Amino acid sequence: MKPFKRLSNRKGQAMVEFAMTTLFLLGFVLVLASAWRICMNWTSLQFAVNEASRFGILGKTDPNQPTREASIRQRIEDAATNLGVNTPITVTFYNIDGTPTAIAGNPANFVRVQAATEIMVDPLTGILLDMFGDYSNSNLRIVADTLVRNEPF
């Protein structure tokens, strides 16, 4: 009996293993790329909230906006123009005790500025997010906020 006869019947084994491994690795790379995009969108939104809040704590307003709150909202939307968002960005102001307020605080008061929006998520990442309960309607809600103290103005 020839010692290598058994191995000659396994010609396609390496090809099947390669195909199975490639599919797994390709799926992993796609999920990783989608997670990177989600993190970049959240970071961009957080940067926009921080920059707008820094502008707002000085009591300044844009010349084209009637109020300081409208100026903060506009600056967040302008800074977050590169986000792949499906819905408009909603900006909410909160007092130090956590209650929503219509104004961005008085001088020397603390105020929390929060911006929220939804981004599209590809189906593969959506399946993984669904395991954690964060996924619905192919959109993922991202929220960024910051707490600032208004300067005397």
Distance between the termini: 96 Å
Q: Which class do the helix and strand fractions yield?
A: alpha+beta
Contiguous uncertain segments of 5+ residues: none
The largest sheet, given as strand count, sense and whether it forms a barrel, is: 4 strands, antiparallel
Helix coverage percent: 40-55%
Tally of contiguous helical segments: 3
Mean pLDDT reading: 84
Rg measurement, Å: 25 Å
Order of secondary-structure elements: HHEEEHE
Strand content: 15-25%
Q: How many strand units? A: 4
Oligomer: single chain
State the shape. Answer: elongated
Please describe the topology of this protein.
Elements: H1 13-56, H2 68-79, E1 90-94, E2 100-101, E3 110-120, H3 123-132, E4 139-149
Antiparallel strand pairs: 1-2, 1-3, 3-4
Helix pairs in contact: 1-2
Q: Can you put this structure into words, describing what you see?
A:
By secondary structure, this protein is an alpha+beta fold. 43% of the residues lie in helices and 19% in strands. The chain is built from three helices and four strands, in the order H-H-E-E-E-H-E. The chain has a four-stranded antiparallel β-sheet, covered by helices on one side. Helix 1 packs antiparallel against helix 2. The chain starts with 12 loop residues before the first helix and ends with a strand. The model has no long low-confidence stretch (mean pLDDT 84).
